[in-house]
Write a structure and sequence with these properties.
Blueprint: E1 3-7, H1 24-33, E2 37-41, H2 53-62, E3 69-71
Length: 102
């Protein structure tokens, strides 16, 4: 089992929307089928509209996205510091997730 820390905007959703990017559904199915943890991170937070916590939680529910935790208000750039066994999947903003990358 692994823990996937995954950003929302530009990674799962087209930036600034709640529209899935290519590969998102397959990636989320892979995580669920393999009993991995999904921890979402996002800069979204205490703003109005699509960037609010409430609208984000609603979009996740509407899309049926199951996750273990979500962390709002995470600034960029994001730097992960970990010991052995850590890896990263970097995707180009709004291009989706390529199955070969995971």
């Amino acid at each position: 089992m692994a823990a996937y820390f995954v950003d929302l905007d530009g990674t799962l959703f087209e930036f600034g929307t709640d529209i899935f990017l290519p590969g998102t559904k397959e990636f989320l199915e892979f995580i669920k089928e393999n009993n991995h943890q999904l921890i979402l991170t996002t800069r979204r937070g205490d703003w109005d509209g699509v960037f609010s916590k409430e609208s984000t939680l609603k979009a996740l529910k509407d899309h049926g996205i199951e996750y273990h935790s979500i962390i709002f208000g995470v600034d960029s750039p994001r730097i992960v510091v970990n010991d052995d066994g850590c890896s990263a999947i970097n995707v180009t903003t709004d291009k989706g997730i390529n199955k070969e990358s995971y």
